[in-house]
Amino acid sequence: xxxxxxxxxxxxxxDRILEARYGGPRRRLRLDPLSTLILTVLSQHxxxxxxxxxFERLRRRFPAWERLRDARVEAVIDAxxxxxxxxxxAPRIQRLLTRITAERGRLSLxxxxxxxxxxxKAWLRTLDGVGPKTAAIVLIFGLGKAAFPVDxxxxxxxxxxxxxxxxxSVEKAHGWVEALVRPARYGPFHLLLIRHGREICKxxxxxxxxxxxxxxxxxxxxAARYGAATR
Length: 231
Ligand code: SF4
Prior knowledge:
Number of helices: 12
Order of helices and strands: HHHHHHHHHHHH
CATH topology of the largest domain: Endonuclease III, domain 1
Number of strands: 0
Bound molecules: iron/sulfur cluster
Structural class: mainly alpha
Radius of gyration: 19 Å
Helix content: 55-70%
């Protein structure tokens, strides 16, 4: 199902307003696609600061990913402890590395650079524990391909504003948002929505009174109609 033109226009307005508020995207650390995948697994259920710390410890202890793949799992658990859930994440990362080596003969995801985005996405989704969000992060930030990751902030903010329909699963929301936004804006808009979700449109008490996109927001319109408090 393709989003209507009116919703595409509304989304572009939201994008412009958020960019005016927060500015352009901050420069991101450029990582190769395999490192992006590892960092994304580390980032599950923790903050960017913690996952970055765990990633740097991992890099220091295992300067080659082959050494990480073949290490004792206890050593990996210890290295990634700052990321939390290390007993789950360590074997998951090692299984990913083993699978990539077994299938491709070497430990690299650079072969995906030559593949069209749909094929690369489908292949990434065959990896154990790689869902639509992780696949999209590897595609856009590791490979520079057009994909829109829908994380918890994007999903919540998008539904409140009304650019992601209520009832649409987070999995289906990926394709929906990709059809709403110009590919050149995938990365910047994704980062703007995350920042907005962290700073203003928080999960528990959204700060609607100071929100620059309240004029576009379905949640705010409904709350105002029923006189609900929106601080
Ligand atoms: S008006 Fe409120 S609910 Fe809507 S985007 Fe802003 S903070 Fe979120």
